[in-house]
Amino acid sequence: MKYYNLKDKEEVVDFKTATIKGQGKEKGLFFPEYIPLFEKDFIENLDLYTDEEIAYRCMKDFVGNEIPSEVLKEIVSETINFEIPLKKINENIYSLELFHGPTLAFKDVGARFMSRCLSYFLKSENKKVTVLVATSGDTGGAVANGFYKTENINVVILYPKNRVSEVQEKQLTALGENISALEVDGSFDDCQNLVKQAFSDAEINSKLFLTSANSINVARWLPQQIYYLLALKQWKKTENGKPVIAVPSGNFGNLCAGILAYFRGLPVEHFIAACNENDVIPNYLRTQKLQIKETVATLSNAMDVGNPSNFVRILTLFGNKFQDVTDIISGYSVDDEKTLASIKNVYEKYSHLLDPHAAVAYAAMEKHFEDNPKKGFILGTAHPVKFPQAVEKAIQTSVDLPDSLELLMKKEKKSIEINPDFAELKRFLLTEI
After folding, report:
1. pLDDT tens digits, 330-382
2. CA atoms of 20 and 421, how far apart (whole Å)
3. Does residue 333 or residue 199 have the better pLDDT?
4. 3-class DSSP state of 224
5. Is 57 inside a domain boundary?
6. Looking at the 3D structure of the chain, how many domains does it have?
7. What is the number of other CB atoms lying within 10 angstroms of the CB of residue 194?
8. Catalytic center residues
9. Contact 389/164 with Cβ under 8 angstroms?
10. How far apart are CA 153 and CA 177, in angstroms?
11. Is residue 350 within 8 Å of residue 342, measured between CB atoms?
C-alpha cells in the first residue's frame, strides 16, 4: 500500500515512511492510494474469527509486506489485549466500551499499534526519533503509556493548561524517563499549531527526526477501524439490522476510521458526529460552510477542537461530495447542561455510568432517534473515573478510582510550562531533547 499527501499528490510514500514521518510536505495528511474492500464472506461471518484474526485482516492490506505477517499478528494481538465489550443501555442504544486499556481511553488502541510499528521500523534504521504530539486529553496519556521506556524514542507532549482533567494530567506528567510534558498556556488548537510549526521548521528537522502520534499519523488513525469490526461481531449476536453509530468527535480521527471501515464494506445504517459546543462540523453539515472557530472549553474537553485535522480525510473518502457526506453523517452539538443531564438520566434510569464524551454521543443519538427511530450504539471513549468532577456533579455520588489510578495520582507531576509561542517550543526541542 502506498500513501499520498492530500496537499501534494506527487508525494507518495510507503507505510513505513508515513508512520515515521507522520505528515507530508506543507503539513499535508497521508491517505491510502486505494480503499481495500473487506471480503463479503468475512463481514458476514465475523463470529467465526477471533478478535486477533479480525484485527489482522483489518490491517494487513494497509501494512502490506513492510512488516512480516507473524510480527503484524503479534502487534495487533498486543494492540487489543484488553476487553472491548458492547453493552446494552436500553432497548435502542448500546455502548461500545473502549476504555478498558491501560490508560482507560479509546486511544490506547491506536497508540499501542503505532508504538509497536514505529519500534519495529526503527530497529533497522539505527536512529533516534522524537514523537511530538498535541493532546486535548486522552491522546497524550495513551501515547505516553505506549512509548514509555521505548528505546531510541523520545516523546514530547503538548497539552493546554487547566483544560485537561486531573487524571489525564497525571497520565501525561507522572512517567518521566523518555516522556516530556509541556503545559501550554493556551488551547488545544494552540498546541496543535505549535506541533505543525515544528514539523515545518527546517532547523528543527535538520537536528531531530520528528514524527507525530496524533491521529494525523496513519499508524494511529487506521487501527481504530478494528473496534468497529469487533462491535459489529457483538452486535450481530443480539440485533438483526444495521446499527446507527454515534461517535464523540473532536479532531475526527475516530469517526473517520469508522467511515473508512464503512467504505470497505462494514454494514452501518448511519453515523452521528456528536460534538460539544465546538460545533464547526455540525454547522458545516447544515450549511456547507466550513468555518474554523476559537475553541470553547467544555466538560468533554477531549473534543474541544475548533479546527479538526481529520475532517479533510472524511471529505476525501466522499470525493468532496457534500450530499453524499450528509446522506451518511448527521451532526449534533450538545452543551454542558445537556451533557450533565444525560449522565444523570442514564445513571438513574439504566444504572449505566457515562463519561462526558459518551454522554454527548448519547444525547446526540437520542436527538437523532426522535425523527429517525432506529437502533445503534455510542462509542464510550473514556472511563468515567477520568472525569470525576463532571460525573460526580451529575450523579451526586463519588466515583471510586481503580487501584492503578490510585497509585498514579500519588506520583509527582513533572511538566514544563510554556507560552503558545513557537520560539519557546523550538528552544526546548533544540536544547533539551
Report:
1. 999 999 999 999 999 999 999 999 999 999 999 999 999 999 999 999 999 99
2. 26
3. 333
4. helix
5. no
6. 1
7. 23
8. 107
9. no
10. 11
11. no
The owner of cell 458492547 is 86
Residues in CB range of 397: below 8 A, 6 or more apart: none
Q: Among 44-58, 80-94, 207-221, 227-241, where is mean pLDDT lowest?
A: 207-221
- Identify the CATH number of the domain in which residue 339 sits: 3.40.50.1100
Structural domain including 226 reads 83-105+221-395
- 213 pLDDT band, cuts 50/70/90, is confident
DSSP per residue, 328-394? HEEEEE--HHHHHHHHHHHHHHH-----HHHHHHHHHHHHHHHHS---EEEEE-B-GGG-HHHHHHH
Question: Measured between alpha carbons, how far is 104 from 382 in angstroms, rounded to an integer?
Answer: 6
Contact 417, 183 (CB under 8 A): yes
DSSP per-residue codes, 5-51: ETTEEEEEEEHHHHHHH-S-GGGPPEEESS-PPPPHHHHHTGGGS-H
Q: Is the pTM of this model over 0.70?
A: yes
240 SS3 class: coil
Radius of gyration, CA atoms only, the chain: 20
What would the grid cell of residue 341 be?
A: 443531564
Query: Is 352 within the bounds of a domain?
Result: yes
Q: At what angle do helices 356-371 and 336-350 cross, to 10 degrees?
A: 90
CB atoms within 10 A of CB 402: 11
15 lies in a domain? no
Q: Is residue 70 part of a domain?
A: no
By the 8 A CB rule, do 339 and 356 touch? yes
